[in-house]
Every structure is written in C-alpha cells, then in structure tokens.
Specification:
The complex is a heterodimer of chains A (139) and B (216).
Chain A (H helix, E strand, L loop, with lengths): L2 H4 L13 H22 L6 H21 L7 H25 L23 H6 L10
Chain B lengths: L18 H36 L1 H8 L4 H26 L3 H31 L20 H33 L9 H26 L1
Classes of the chains: A mainly alpha (139), B mainly alpha (216).
Chain lengths: 139, 216
C-alpha cells in the first residue's frame, strides 16, 4: 500500500497526508463509543458487562491504531510487529488463567489460595499458618 | 510557502540510503518499542484478570469506589489529545509550522488536564485510606475490608500509565521547542511522527484501563 508513494524522486521522504475529515470522524467515533461504554455500564448484565466493555474497547483501540497511528497505510511489517505483541500477550493470558481460574478442579485446594488480608490485620497464629503464597507445596 | 527555518536542514544519517529509508527505519524501531510497551502493561492486565477472577465480590465492591465521571472525563481528555496530536503530525507533514505549534500546545494542555484530574482522584483515595497492600486502611462509607489487592493493582496500573503521560509531556515539550525553531518540514518530521505514535499508545492503554477498572 505504502510502496506506491514510498520512493519519491531522489529518495526524499514524501508524507502520506490523510484528509482532515478522517481524523475528525475517528475522534467522533471514539467519543461516541466512550459514551456507549459508560452508558452500558449502568445496566447489570452479569458477565456480559466485561464482554461488551472489552468489545467496545477493542473497536476503539483499532480505530486509534489504524487511523491515528496510520497503521492502515503503514508498512505491513510494522503491523505484524505490533499485532504479534498482542498474540504473545494472549498466550500469557491463556496459560496463566488456565491455572489460576481452574484451581481445585482436579485436586482439591487444601488451604487458602492467595493472601488478600494484610498480614498486620491477621491474628498472629493465623498469619503464621498461611505464608505459602501460591508456592504449590502439598501440605 | 514552507515556513520552516531555511538555515536548518536535516541530514540523512550516513548509514542510510536515503531519507525514505531513514524514516522507515526510525518508525520500525519505534513500533518494536511499542510492542514491548504492550507486553509491559500486559502483565498488569493479566494480574487484573487473575485477581478479579479469584475474588469477584471484593473486586466489584472495591471498583465501585472509583469515580466513573472522573475516569470518563479523563477518557474524553485523552481521546481529544490523541486527535490534536494526530493533527500536529498532519500539520508538520503539510509544512504548517503555526498549526504544528498550536496543536502541540493543545496536546500538552490536555495532558496536563489529565494529570490534574488524576491528582484529585488520587487525593480522594488517599483521604479514605484506599491505598495498596499494607497501607490499606479503609475509612469511609462502604469501603471494602479487603480491597488492598485491588487498590495495589489500581495504583500500579494507573501510576505506570501516569508516568507515561508525564514522559509524553516532556517529549511533546521537546517537540514544541524544535517546532518553534522551525526544524520540521514535510521532508523531515520524524520526531513528531514518533512522539505521536507514543502518545497514541498512552491513549490505547487507557482505552482498556478505563472500562476494566472504572466500569466493569
């Protein structure tokens, strides 16, 4: 896409200037989607709250990267680099949650999972008994 | 009608074939950096997913203490600042020095507005003892007894994001200085482009951060 204007005469850089209305339309879209996501948050639709919020956020993020960051008109390789970061991030999510969200399903969890209460607010003997912050030891 | 200073001329580095290659190499390097930024913030978002999943009730009770009006206002501020930054890049691409300066000043002012709103938000949290980890001493209406984990992550994530906003303000001020000196032109505006990309990433992080912490 960008190759058609990439090599101008004498190797000078010729910017690819987008029309003003694209920027204004994208900003209007982002503001409307922000309003939408706040409005939806006032309704309790259970687990769908997260789904809707993340879907709207992803549409907004795509608008920002494609138009404000010019990724739509940029070298394809830059898009590959940026998108690959999200691919690796999703691996991070999947493997971590496959563990923490499913604890106790195969083997029962015998003790508290991860300490939430500050050490200082726990009675002394209880604090001593649970210091294994997810160390995975089988007591 | 090029308005850039006639005595300033950017010289293409000797290790580049031409200006086009230099521009593309600079931009590619910055996209690599942005990929590492995604992974850095990503760790905090993974932590969010793990703990919100383990303690859903605590999470809901604690996140109810964030002000979605303030958070929403900051979202609008950042989106508009992304627009003004994109317009600053466009102005430098079209040799419009005056517009470049005006849009950079707007972006800087909006970034400062974001930090002021953040300051009021943080102050309200400090006042009610809604602090991370061992400093969590909640006092106030309906403050959850065990919100320290939530507020630990809240301050880490918004704090890291806030540091990025401050760094962006330094970078935009640097651009402003160069723009006033008339160093940018349609032939060389690489710093504006690069700082622009950085600024949009700051917006991008907030686009996910805002609904997760303030709305869900």
């Amino acid at each position: 896409m960008s190759s058609e204007h990439a090599h101008a005469a004498g190797g000078e850089h010729k910017p690819h200037v987008l029309p003003l209305r694209i920027y204004l339309a994208v900003a209007a879209g982002l503001l409307s989607l922000t309003w939408l996501t706040v409005w939806v948050s006032y309704f309790d639709i259970g687990a769908f709250n997260v789904v809707v919020a993340m879907a709207v956020a992803t549409i907004k993020a795509s608008l920002v990267t494609l138009f404000f960051m010019h990724l739509k008109y940029d070298e394809r390789f830059n898009a590959l680099v940026f998108v690959s970061a999200f691919a690796f991030l999703s691996l991070f999510f999947v493997f971590t949650l496959a563990d923490t969200a499913r604890r106790g399903e195969v083997d029962p969890v015998e003790r508290g999972i991860i300490q939430v209460v500050p050490e200082s607010s726990i009675p002394h003997d209880a604090a001593g008994a649970d210091s294994g912050h997810g160390s995975g030891d089988g007591h | 009608m090029t308005e850039h200073s006639p005595e300033f001329k950017h010289h293409v580095g000797h290790h580049f074939t031409d200006a086009e290659q230099e521009f593309n190499a600079n931009k590619f390097g910055f996209w690599l950096f942005l990929a590492t930024e995604v992974l850095m913030f990503g760790g905090l978002f993974v932590a969010y997913a793990v703990f919100s999943n383990l303690y859903p009730e605590m999470w809901a009770a604690a996140s109810g203490h964030l002000d979605r009006i303030m958070g929403g206002s900051n979202t609008v501020v950042l989106i508009v600042s992304s627009l003004t930054m994109a317009l600053a890049v466009r102005a430098s691409q079209t040799d419009n020095r005056k517009a470049t300066i005006v849009f950079l000043v707007c972006t800087l002012a909006l970034a400062a507005t974001f930090m002021v709103i953040k300051y009021f938000e943080y102050s309200a949290k400090f006042e009610h003892g809604l602090l991370p980890g061992q400093w969590y001493t909640p006092h106030g209406p309906d403050t959850p007894a065990q919100g320290n984990l939530f507020f630990g992550l809240y301050f880490m994530t918004t704090g890291l994001h806030g540091i990025h906003v401050l760094a962006g303000m330094v970078a935009i001020s640097w651009l402003l200085r160069k723009a006033v000196k008339g160093q940018f032109s349609s032939r060389w505006y690489t710093p504006v482009e690069i700082v622009g990309l950085y600024w949009h990433l700051v917006d991008l992080v907030w686009i996910y951060l805002f609904p997760l912490y303030y709305l869900v």
